[in-house]
Design brief:
There is one protein chain. With 375 residues, the chain is of the alpha+beta class. It has four domains: 2-68; 74-173, PAS domain (Beta-Lactamase, 2-Layer Sandwich); 190-281, Jelly Rolls (Sandwich), CATH 2.60.120.10; 300-371, Orthogonal Bundle (Arc Repressor Mutant, subunit A), CATH 1.10.10.10. The protein is built from eleven helices and 17 strands. The strands form four sheets. The chain has a five-stranded antiparallel beta sheet. It has a four-stranded antiparallel beta sheet with strand order 6-13-8-11. Strands 7-12-9-10 form a four-stranded antiparallel beta sheet. The model has no long low-confidence stretch (mean pLDDT 81).
């Protein structure tokens, strides 16, 4: 451009008759050309800086990718429902499956079948913001081999406080640690203790020095309000614990929903035995989580939402899968639902009829609720 302007200026100067405005125009063109030249030089410098930044970012990306891929423990990222979005090499090796096959799969698919209910309950509790949480669970490799792991999980949340993604750190329990856990379970085997049986509808005796462990059946845990009405605060099914020692409620009652078998554990045994304390700690945590979940029912403004939440909670806690549906194996009266939802029995009856009409719930021949779809 500079050469063309210089040539043009030379040609004009050599003209026999020079228009008055031409030199001024050519001078302005030259000035504009110089400005463009400076701008180009500045762009060159900026481009060089951008290339350096790009090289730095590429190096940082490679460093973090290497840290992620070569981490000594398994690591994966899932959405709020447990669907795998990203996994490192160690994670894929532990499950004996290629990384590209892991993406898009639900993490629960790799959990041992008998522990999937526990895993789903744990996953549902992660929707509540808090600190990192741990879970000891059994996974199954692609080859069919089972192995115990410890998951440490943290969640990220959006501006509305809803979980966006879950970050899972996986550590396989080595043989020494596994043998220690096995020994703890052996030392604290509840099967060697006397079994207490209660029939359906019986009230279970509670005292401050004893904790009950449920071997079979479901126990309904209730309290009495000032009005004298009974309010549902929890359900203890097989493998769970309960007792008046674990609550500060003055009126606390346990009722067998159907025939149950229990073993008793003295509080003094727990305080005196580190092994027993270690074994029961997750069960205390489970009892606390469930109680908080039942208390959360009253936090919904609409009665319909309270009932929906309660049905989902029952589905998660004690539900039995029947194909694509879930059966709630205990029969709670409309009065039980009304007390738990802080409303009247008439309102619960009307809402239940509405849910049945919409095809969201149905009943089997024993009048147990079958949950189809409450989304």
């Amino acid at each position: 451009m500079d050469k063309r302007i210089a040539k043009l200026y030379e040609n004009v100067v050599n003209l026999p008759v020079l228009p008055h405005s031409v030199p001024q125009v050519l001078f302005e063109l030259g000035s504009a050309s110089q400005t463009v030249h400076y701008a180009i030089e500045e762009l060159y410098q900026q481009n060089e800086q951008l290339e350096k930044v790009q090289e730095t970012l590429a190096a940082e990306f490679y460093r973090y990718e290497e840290l992620f891929e070569e981490a000594p423990d398994g690591y994966c990222v899932t959405d709020a429902h447990g669907k795998i979005q990203l996994a490192n090499r160690k994670f894929s090796r532990l499950l004996n499956i290629e990384k590209h096959y892991l993406v898009g799969k639900n993490l629960v698919n790799f959990v041992a079948l008998e522990e999937r209910k526990c895993f789903r309950n744990f996953l549902s509790q992660l929707s509540q913001p808090g600190r990192n949480q741990e879970l000891v669970i059994c996974l199954q490799r692609r080859s069919g081999e089972f192995f115990e792991v410890v998951f440490t999980v943290s969640a990220s949340y959006d501006n509305q406080g809803k979980p966006q993604s879950l970050r899972w750190l996986l550590r396989a329990i080595n043989e020494r640690k596994s043998s220690q856990l096995t020994q703890i379970k052996k030392d604290c085997d509840f099967g060697d203790r006397p079994i207490y049986k209660y029939s359906k509808g019986e009230t279970i005796l509670l005292d401050q020095q004893t904790i009950w462990y449920v071997c079979q059946g479901v126990v309904k845990l209730t309290t009495l309000c000032e009005s004298g009405e009974e309010t549902l605060v929890g359900l203890a099914d097989q493998g769970m614990i309960f007792g008046s020692y674990m609550t500060s409620l003055n009126n606390y009652q346990a009722t067998a929903m159907f025939d149950v078998q229990l073993v008793s554990i003295y509080v003094s045994e727990i305080t005196a035995s580190p092994n027993l304390s270690y074994l029961l700690l997750p069960k205390f945590n489970q009892r606390l989580r469930q109680t908080e979940a039942f208390l959360a029912v009253s936090g919904f403004r609409r009665v319909q939402d309270r009932l929906y939440y309660l049905l989902r909670l029952l589905k998660q806690e004690i539900g039995e899968k029947i194909g694509n549906e879930t059966r709630i194996p205990i029969r709670l009266t409309h009065e039980d639902f009304a007390n738990a939802c802080c409303t009247t029995r008439v309102t619960i009856t009307r809402l239940m009829c509405k849910l049945k009409y919409q095809g969201k719930i149905t009943f089997d021949n024993k009048r147990h609720i079958i949950v189809k779809n409450l989304d």
